[in-house]
Specification:
single chain; 192 residues; mainly alpha; 9 helices; 80% helix; transmembrane; DedA_domain; membrane; DedA family protein
């Protein structure tokens, strides 16, 4: 089923309502959907590079709004909706241990999930469940998702199709290494 959804999404790249489809995918990916909006965003930008910033902006706005839905699921319906969603992602066992550490790391958890391949929907639901301040969640989501989507848009706008392989195969790893170095730097500064 996921494979069919993936190919359906790729088929929507040239559709006149592709931006609306991207917005829908970015919205639901932030709380329940398993396929990231990059699947649509990358070929859309390659097909129309002059619209790269608009495409990234739509993905950002819809993703943050979808993240707020994930936050609401965690805050208001964790037992009935949030827990089954996280269980379907294989994250149910780690929830109790994770929740105690989560709010101590709140900003970093949202930032990390927003830019790395870690499922952002897990963090949106956990943010609501653990009671992270909504303002912190929204601001960090805008920063993280904006960084991710606009960096992808900028790379595709500047370098075109040759950079696609790097984005699809290695950009998530680069973001992960960047966040790890950033956290490591802060940790070293704290210890000094």
């Amino acid at each position: 089923m996921i494979r069919r959804l993936y190919f359906w999404m790729l088929g929507m790249v040239d559709h006149p309502r592709a931006l609306w489809v991207l917005a829908g995918v970015a919205f639901v990916e932030s709380s329940v959907f398993p396929i990231p909006p990059d699947v649509l965003m990358i070929p859309m930008i390659l097909a129309q590079p002059r619209r790269a910033w608009l495409i990234a902006g739509v993905a950002l706005a819809a993703s943050v709004l979808g993240g707020m839905l994930g936050y609401a699921i965690g805050a208001l319906a964790f037992d009935t909706l949030g827990q089954p969603i996280l269980a379907s992602l294989g994250k149910a066992d780690a929830m109790a241990d994770f929740s105690t550490v989560f709010n101590d790391m709140g900003f970093w958890a949202v930032l990390t999930a927003g830019v790395t391949p870690f499922p952002y929907k897990v963090i949106t639901i956990m943010s609501g469940w653990t009671g992270m301040p909504l303002g912190t969640f929204i601001a960090t989501s805008i920063l993280a998702r904006g960084l991710r989507f606009f960096l992808v848009a900028g790379l595709l706008w500047r370098f075109g199709a040759p950079i696609r392989d790097f984005i699809e195969r290695r950009l998530g790893l680069m973001f992960t290494l960047f966040v790890a170095c950033l956290l490591g730097g802060f940790l070293i500064l704290r210890l000094i």
